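Holo prediction. Input below; ligand is phosphoribosyl ATP.
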Amino acid sequence: MTGGPTGESADDAEDTAAVLDELFAVVEDRKETLPDESYTASLFTHEKGENAVLEKLGEETTELLLAAKDDDREEIAHESADIVYHLLVLLSMKEMDLADLRAELRERR
Ligand SMILES: N=c1c2ncn([C@@H]3O[C@H](COP(=O)(O)OP(=O)(O)OP(=O)(O)O)[C@@H](O)[C@H]3O)c2ncn1[C@@H]1O[C@H](COP(=O)(O)O)[C@@H](O)[C@H]1O
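Structure of the complex:
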């Protein structure tokens, strides 16, 4: 375990990557199998599902800014997670995936 520039260990970084990969795989699975009770599936099937995702991203970004202003770390984590989830749904809606995000981030290093 080596400490990275963010103070995260290599194990933590791998764990974060695994969590994102797993969540994206779940999103892709819901898109394909469309289970009735799935919130994710409802975003793919509803006529205005994409609008709903975009609205959520807007709302959650505002909530994140307010949480940051209030130094509310729990709320910052909660809103960040909501944003990441809806961002992954949006990538999937656009037939994109985490490789696109990785490529863009790597180019900036
Ligand atoms: N990560 C999420 C996730 N984040 C948010 N949401 C849903 O998004 C909807 C709207 O989120 P909101 O932030 O508005 O809801 P909220 O947290 O009550 O509102 P605020 O506190 O932010 O104001 C809610 O119904 C949440 O349940 C999510 N729904 C699903 N997932 C993941 O997707 C998986 C599959 O879920 P289903 O598609 O429902 O099977 C789950 O196991 C989770 O891992």
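The pocket of phosphoribosyl ATP is lined by residues 23, 26, 30, 38-41, 56, 60, 63, 82, 85 (CB under 6 Å). That is the main takeaway for now.
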